[in-house]
Specification:
13% of the residues lie in helices and 32% in strands. By secondary structure, it is an alpha+beta fold. It folds into two domains: 101 residues, no CATH class; 38 residues, no CATH class. The strands form four sheets. The chain has a six-stranded antiparallel beta sheet. The protein has a three-stranded antiparallel beta sheet with strand order 11-12-13, with no helix packed on it. The chain has a two-stranded antiparallel sheet with strand order 4-8.
């Protein structure tokens, strides 16, 4: 009987597939619907909140203060240690599991249960048609072509163009690879 060798641990650096960095904190959505976030390291609550706010803002959301945010800050953040391993799954680039600090390859991580947060959709980020910078600033005004409604105004070149409606959009196709 042959045994399959255990997958090799893979230290996550924040440049791995699925990660984006906000205020120096690497975040990756985890789970089927990205209901949890994985942050590398054990950042302070203040830095974590800044990164979480920027993460949501990147998707055109503004976090709202309230009981859900208070609960997240009190009970929805868990700092621990974990190991990541490569996977042969076509759906995931890596998998992660809790570990002790003494475990070979263990690294500090922070789990954030952000699924229940209240937010308001402010605008779908779009690229400026003139300079290519991403913009999520939306205002209701008459554009130079005399059409009313929501418009983006680029902060760099001041180009103005109609904004995408601010209802929920599917940000990734169901076939897209995810993270577990």
């Amino acid at each position: 009987m042959t045994t399959t060798p255990a997958p090799a641990t893979k230290p996550l650096t924040g440049t791995d597939e699925g990660f984006a960095t906000f205020y120096g904190i690497a975040l990756a959505p985890v789970g089927e619907d990205g209901e949890r976030l994985l942050a590398l390291g054990h950042p302070t609550t203040r830095r974590l909140l800044a990164a979480l706010t920027a993460y949501h803002r990147d998707y055109g959301h503004c976090l709202l203060p309230g009981d859900e945010l208070t609960h997240l800050l009190s009970h929805g953040i868990r700092q621990t240690w974990a190991i990541a391993t490569d996977t042969t799954s076509p759906r995931y680039a890596w998998v992660i599991q809790d570990a002790t600090p003494e475990h070979p390859g263990a690294q500090p991580v922070t789990w954030i249960d952000h699924e229940a947060l209240d937010y308001r959709t402010i605008a779908i980020p779009e690229q400026c048609p003139q300079c290519g910078r991403t913009s999520r600033s939306t205002t209701y005004h008459w554009a130079t072509d005399h059409r009313g409604g929501p418009h983006h105004t680029c902060r760099v070149c001041e180009c103005c163009w109609p904004a995408t409606p601010t209802h929920q959009h599917l940000l990734a196709s169901p076939e897209a690879p995810g993270i577990s």
